[in-house]
TrEMBL record:
This is DNA/RNA polymerase. It comes from the Eukaryota. One of its GO terms (molecular function) is nucleic acid binding. SUPFAM superfamilies: DNA/RNA polymerases (SSF56672). InterPro entries: DNA/RNA_pol_sf, Hepadnavirus_pol/RT, RNase_H-like_dom_plant, RNaseH_sf.
Length: 591
């Protein structure tokens, strides 16, 4: 599912709770200072709305258009009696004069754009909240940016937005782009392509907030108070708001303007075009790939700002931090980016002197985001994040200190070793292939008596007694055994000469099928996935697991129950051999 497709089924989120609508202090402040609380956006809402008349999710379209006209509420829940009417948490000092001067200039620019109000003095008015601010480098550009910390302190704005209520947005990623490139190559194998990328200027700041939220977004600079009227990157719901709008913009580009194979990752729209197919974009006096110009024309119609320096194209182009080559059909991660991630992982699990390893939930989330990013190029490293997510599960306090346990050290260490040795080039190839396209097919099963797998091509079955499972498996022993049988079949297939390029395994366990095809499972079973991915990484085997009904999996079922006579009757000439399940899949160390 792409971001544009997501909008077709996306759900709206909540309006301000009832007690916010009867917050007399806030209403009185807004009513008596209307010049401070304005809904501002450069977006041409009527044009935007007209282009969406044929969208299959009209409720969502109306919701987003209402947000553009009246301001967005960030799905905040503010239980009555829990939060004070007014709260000032803006006393974080700005210690460097360079940063202080940047804030003054930034404030002037935001006031000129209408996104900050004029100063209304040094004191908060009833109903207002003010969060701490800071200044940080803006990536590797050498520039600075404002940070509004809506998570810090008691009664923070982000504490009003429970993390478990944060909605799901499908960001278009390298996998999405890769699938489109593969589909195009099926039809046009010899076309030479270029990549393009267009950046939306000001991004989140284009979108207005509801005045009932604006009153909680007071920015304090040099003691002077300003109302921040627009969406800010520090808000927990900001990405959901932006992607709701950006997803609809991309939907218009695809479904109304006919710009095929177009995607977006936050404020970057990107895609590919045939080399030499260009159009002239007069405002920049430049010829660009035709799709890119048509996208810029749409943005101009909708009032979306952009600037020339951020409109890029080329035979190889950096998309989401990866170099994409649509002609070699490969994606590359730079050595520097890989080294940075390795250093971050090593620092995270390093044991400080005379102390336990602990990190805040915020640091866990930051590392998880970074690891998810690298899965675009190294998808088989996903099992290395199992314990990381388990440690974060059920926690909501962003400052909570979470201990780094031995399982997490082991899994992140596993990721580090593969990152150090893996090729930095990922070839784009289809993940969707059928069982009929496999070079080898194996059937697996487990019972209360044993494990088994069966290869029709070799007229051979294999069986093993049950083995001792890790203690944390508990009562889910059959699931562990079913998964172990699949891993054992892969281990055996990897030793064949010639080795199968594509291997299909059939299992009658739905959980086992899902675990192997998503590379996700509970920690108790992750040793199996870690070993599975070790084999896949070292051999290059393409591996898929499909479901088979138990009543059809008769040979593997019989072997798992040690009913060898039955299995041989079903398959005349069948050989039956013993096997030992791979020890690393049981949690033993690999050497």
């Amino acid at each position: 599912m792409t971001l544009a497709e997501w909008t077709e089924t996306a759900q709206v989120w909540s309006d301000p709770p009832i007690h916010e609508l009867v917050n007399l202090d806030a209403f009185d402040t807004i009513d008596t200072h209307r010049e401070l609380f304005q809904v501002v956006t450069p977006i041409k809402i009527d044009v935007f709305e007209r282009y969406l008349e044929g969208h299959p999710n009209p409720d969502f379209v109306r919701f987003v258009c209402r947000g553009l006209r009246d301001g967005f509420w960030p799905n905040a829940q503010t239980p009555e009696g829990v939060y004070p009417t007014t709260w000032d948490n803006s006393d974080r000092p700005i210690r460097e004069e360079l940063h202080a001067e940047f804030l003054r200039e930034h404030c002037k620019a935001e006031m000129k754009a209408g996104r900050f109000s004029r100063s209304f003095g040094t004191e908060l008015l009833p109903g207002m909240y003010s969060s701490p601010i800071g200044v940080v480098p803006k990536g590797d550009t050498g520039k600075l940016r404002l940070v509004v910390d809506q998570t810090a302190g008691d009664y923070s704005l982000n504490s009003m937005i429970p993390r478990n209520q944060c909605g799901y947005t499908k960001l278009d990623d390298i996998q999405t782009l890769g699938e489109a490139l593969l589909a195009y190559r099926e039809l046009h194998p010899n076309d030479e392509l270029v990549m393009f990328k267009s950046d939306v200027q000001d991004a989140y700041r284009l979108l207005p907030m509801d005045p009932m939220w604006q009153i909680k977004q007071i920015i304090t600079i040099d003691g002077q108070r300003h109302v921040d009227r627009c969406c800010t990157i520090g808000n927990r719901w900001a990405m959901q708001i932006f992607n709701a709008w950006m997803g609809l913009v991309i939907w218009i580009a695809i479904n109304v303007k006919g710009i095929t194979d177009l995607f977006a990752y936050v404020d970057d729209g990107f895609g590919f075009e045939r080399k030499g197919v260009t159009l002239y974009y007069k405002p920049y006096d430049t010829w660009y790939p035709a799709k890119q110009v048509r996208l810029l024309w749409l943005w101009d119609e909708l009032g979306i700002p952009h600037k020339k320096s951020k409109q890029l194209y080329g035979d190889v182009l950096t998309i989401i931090g990866f170099d994409v080559d649509p002609n070699r059909m490969c994606v590359t991660i730079s050595d520097n980016r890989r080294a940075d991630l390795i250093a971050a992982l090593e620092s995270f699990i390093r044991l400080p002197a005379n102390a336990r390893r602990r990190h805040s939930l915020r640091e866990y989330y930051r590392l998880a985001g970074w690891c998810n990013w690298v899965l675009n190029v190294f998808p088989l490293l996903r099992p290395g994040m199992c314990e990381l997510y388990a440690k974060m599960a059920g926690k909501s306090s962003i400052h909570a200190q979470i201990q780094v346990n031995s399982a997490l050290v082991r899994e992140l260490g596993w990721m580090i070793e593969h990152l150090k040795t893996a090729e930095g080039v990922h070839m784009l190839e289809s993940k969707e292939w059928s069982a009929e396209q496999a070079d080898l097919t194996v059937y697996t099963d487990a019972s209360g008596k044993g494990l088994a797998f069966y290869s029709p091509a070799h007229l051979t079955g294999f069986q093993s007694p049950l083995v001792a499972r890790p203690k944390q498996v508990g009562d889910s022993q059959i699931f562990f055994d079913e998964a172990l049988a699949v891993c054992s079949a892969l281990q055996w297939a990897s030793t064949l000469n010639p080795r199968p390029r594509r291997l299909v395994v059939f299992s009658d366990s739905d959980n086992t099928v899902a675990m192997n095809n998503t590379l996700k499972c509970k920690p108790a079973y992750n040793s199996i996935l870690l070993h599975t991915c070790n084999i896949l990484i070292s051999t290059g085997i393409k591996f898929r697991v499909f479901h088979i009904a138990g009543v059809e999996n008769v040979v593997a079922d019989a072997l798992s129950r040690w009913e060898n006579d039955k299995a041989m009757a079903l398959v005349p000439g069948l050989r039956v051999l013993p096997f030992i399940p791979p020890l690393p899949a049981l949690g033993a160390s690999e050497r």
